[in-house]
Amino acid sequence: MLAWSSFPPREAPVGDATMPPKASELTPEDTTAAANDTTAKIVADAQMAIADAAKRIEAAVQQGLEQVRAQSRVYADVASEQIDEASRVASEQIRARPLAATGAALGVGVLIGLLLASRR
Predict the structure, then answer these.
(1) Which positions, given as ranges, span the membrane (predicted)?
(2) What is the distance in angstroms between the CA of the first residue and the CA of the last residue of the chain?
(3) Cα–Cα dist 34/7, whole Å
(4) In a domain, 101, yes or no
(5) Residue 94 backbone phi and psi in degrees, to 5
(6) How far is the CA of 68 from the CAs of 24, 52, 64, 71, 117, in angstroms?
(7) What does the pLDDT look like over 55-100, one tens digit per residue?
(8) With contact defined as beta carbons under 8 Å apart, do 14 and 45 qualify?
(9) How many whole angstroms separate alpha carbon 30 and alpha carbon 28?
(10) The whole model's pTM is what?
(11) Is the torsion defined by CA of 33, 39, 41, 43 positive or negative?
(12) In total, how many domains does the chain have?
């Protein structure tokens, strides 16, 4: 938005009240210079706003990534504990009943073999 207050003020002659110049008193060069100054200010303000927004977005993304990393560490630790526990229980059961474990493994192998063979 252009506002008249954004145009550079013209110096009033000594003893004259400070009043804005009439539009007819402005030369094309004055108008062009004022428009260029205003445009430069608007561009600078826009660049600063974009840079600030980029910094805020970057900070938000960094914070989100840190939260995801922290939560994934927790999930990985829990999953690792559960896998270790399942492995321990499976090892105990296999050692307690080796023939039953061998029979179960053989049965699973036969079922997978039959399923794969039926697809051909």
Answers:
(1) 99-117
(2) 73
(3) 5
(4) yes
(5) -65, -40
(6) 63, 24, 6, 5, 44
(7) 999 999 999 999 999 999 999 999 999 999 999 999 999 999 999 9
(8) no
(9) 5
(10) 0.45
(11) negative
(12) 2
Q: CA 84 to CA 97: how far, in whole Å?
A: 20
Let me know whether 87 and 70 are in one domain: no
Which tokens belong to 25?
Answer: 């008193």
Q: Which long-range contacts link 116-119 to residues 24+ away (Cβ below 8 Å)?
A: none
Dihedral of the alpha carbons of 68, 73, 75, 81, in degrees to the nearest 10: 180
Note whether residue 103 is domain-resident: yes
Q: Using DSSP, state whether 22 is helix, strand or coil.
A: coil
Looking at the fold, whether 69 and 88 belong to one and the same domain comes out as no
Q: What is the mean pLDDT of residues 37-58?
A: 95
Query: Do 87 and 69 reside in the same domain of the chain?
Result: no
Query: How open is the CA angle 108-110-113, to the nearest 5 degrees?
Result: 110
What the block records as the tokens of 4 is 């008249």
Q: How far apart are CA 120 and CA 118, in angstroms?
A: 6
Residue 26's pLDDT is 73
What is the token pair recorded at 97?
């009943």
